[in-house]
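User: Hi! Is it possible to get a structure for several chains at once, not just one? Here's what I have:
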Amino acid sequence: MAEDFNWAIGGEAGDGINSTGKIFAQALSRAGRHVFTSKDFASRIRGGYTAYKVRTSVDDVQSVVDRLDLLVALTQRTIDENLDELHDDSAIIYDGERSWEADVPEEMFAIDVPLKSLAEEAGGAIMRNIVALGAACELADFPIENLDEALEKRFGGKGEKIVENNKEAARLGQEYVQEEYANVSTDSFDFSLETTDADYVLLNGDEAIGMGAIAAGCRFYAGYPITPATDVMEYLKGRIEHFGGQVVQAEDELSAINMALGAARAGARSMTATSGPGIDLMTETFGLVATSETPLVIADVMRSGPSTGMPTKQEQGDLNMALYGGHGEIPRFVVAPTTIDECFWKTVEAFNLAEKYQVPVYLLADLALAVTEQTFSPEAFDMDAVEVDRGRVVDEDDIDEWLDEEGRFQPHAATEDGISPRAFPGTEKGAHMSTGLEHNALGRRTEEKSVRLEQVEKRQRKVETAQEREDWDVREYGDADADNLVISWGSNEGALVEALDLMDDDLDVRVLSVPYIFPRPDLTEDVQNADETIVVECNATGQFADLIEHDVLERVQRVNKYDGVRYKADELAADITERLEGQA
Amino acid sequence: MSSDVRFTDFKSDKQPTWCPGCGDFGTMNGMMKALAETGNSPDDTFVVAGIGCSGKIGTYMHAYALHGVHGRALPVGTGVKLANPDLEVMVAGGDGDGYSIGAGHFVHAVRRNVDMTYVVMDNRIYGLTKGQASPTSREDFETSTTPGGPQQPPVNPLALAFASGATFIAQSFSSDALRHQEIVQKAIEHDGFGFVNVFSPCVTFNDVDTYDYFRDSLVDLQDEGHDPTDREAAKEKILEADKEYMGVIWQDEDASSYEDTHNVDTNMSEIPDGAPEDGMDLVREFY
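Assistant: Yes, the chains can be modeled jointly so their relative placement is included. Here is the combined structure:
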């Protein structure tokens, strides 16, 4: 019996693939099983192949694999697109009454279920996907009561009748398979999906970022819809208001970042989220945010570039833009969560870093994190552990020590640690201006050489202070004493951790997953002590590998993927093995 | 807000570098007087400015202020106001800032109707870059970049605002100090987006739209018995081709501000020092 079970539903955009897949994932999660989902989708409302994939196990799952055990195919293309992942004993559920004739490879189980007719029997053709879920429960030997719960969650708001009809549709699918395909079972298709008592929550990276923002005290969000960052905005809308916050849909990204900047100047914890094309526009205002020393969190949920690129495909190509985008030189912090739960925690941390050091912080997430749902224990998001540090904010009581001899507030005072006082509007004696022009301690324009030097150096000093004061931890896996070092950033962590288990025991490998791009931990010793160092990332040129080489002054090997698809554990295990064995 | 605030409290100790005789002096003075007259103080006022001669206003006024990037002053003002609705937000810019590079934001700020004031110092020329055509320059106005004139019709900012669903549209003249102050004051008092296009002559680069020209040609709506709440009358005045008006042209007193429709009532600078008390409810939603 296989340890994990891989299921998918695919069809055309508009077929309800996403919502059906989510229902199945929720049913599994409710049943105390771990779930990891992924999506193949196109940037269009109708038409085009789309699929929702679910990997589930009673053990932790944190990656996708190149295997599909049970596929619900609403189109022939769904079968064709997944031939690589299907195996000899895969089962394919399809509706033989549909106009297309399914071409299921001979060796696989072809499960012909009249989805539409059964759905109509239950109350409407619209429920045909639910019939397929019932059929899937039967084939995977998964107690259908768990599906009922997920159906109640999904359709509860639409009334009891709708819920009951959907449950009935699922039952009809289940019974049809019981009667017609009682003997679908072989050595490698013999699933019995156990349930456990564990309570899990199921969420994606965008939702984790949004929830982290609220937890951290973010109260203002301005954004412009863009794949794959829109979920952040949709999560916050309707929730942040409960805490006194606001979400504004701006007319474009130029406006969004300026609104967020305005709110931050008014003292709010403020953020915007976008993807590469939006970052291009926001770069105009980025320098102003940084030089006016305004704390702001800018989430870049990366997708394939350049230009419009592949909007629904994975890439980690914006690292250099986050680090260097914009004219002139100005400190910015770049934090890159490596897992979905870390999307929550790194968002909280990004807000603290932004305010403590009065810098813009790029939160570099990627599509693979954003659109993937994963199960976690609720304690993974322990709200009691959230700390809010607003940095050097002054009020009426302590503002006097920050006034110059003429009683004027100095928002850019060149302090020893580089961090100046902040006075929120409304604070008596705190009125001051800020500008994108080079300025003095008062925030007023200057081109005087000594002041220019003082301000550039003061801003730079904040980085040194942060390097000293903060923990820039890496996440470590594998054998700590291994000869071989694999370094990664962003969403590859899950696949890497699973790849460790798949690789030959003779290959000793230590994995460092790095969530901080700037400032970042010094990995010099780690790289120097390793026989081989491989840097894994989803881009063509190895942008993070460049940084490691720059830091360590030593060449590293690069494993890159830029076909728009995230790393899979088995694929990564093979790639790393090939590199390391190639060296031997 | 203390009643003993004087308009000079809004003056910073920085001397303006505008050319002697520039309309912007009068425009700014009227803004400061209107702010003081409406009971605001520098500590509760936020001034946002864009780029250009007008952009320097944040330096010359004493208040919380941000001198932003070119054309984006309105979004900044929007963010400030929504994050702390107790603040008086005054956004200032020029005709290039508002009607050229920032025209998109102008349209959407107007229709959003956030309760703030937008003063455009319209001199129909790019002054800071030394005399190029602006979006409000006349069709035949010769400049270094438009030797034969722009040969495009100028933007009619009032019509643009009206078409975008404005709830307050006014026009004033920087050298008519009393009327200018009065008009800006009405814009501040308006519950919604108060838009004032101010003729603020450039004495250095514009020899057509001069003090004399405006003095001779501007018609004060007050003398015409114009009712700004009369939509049809307002539309007629705004679209009139051969006359320019001063005064409040259109005011929709019944319109709801963004703050009203979106329940904006919180000073967002005040947050707890940890996650919200009911934070775990957010997690449980994902069961």
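The longest strand of chain A covers residues 49-57. The two ends of chain A are 35 Å apart (CA to CA).

User: Great, thank you!
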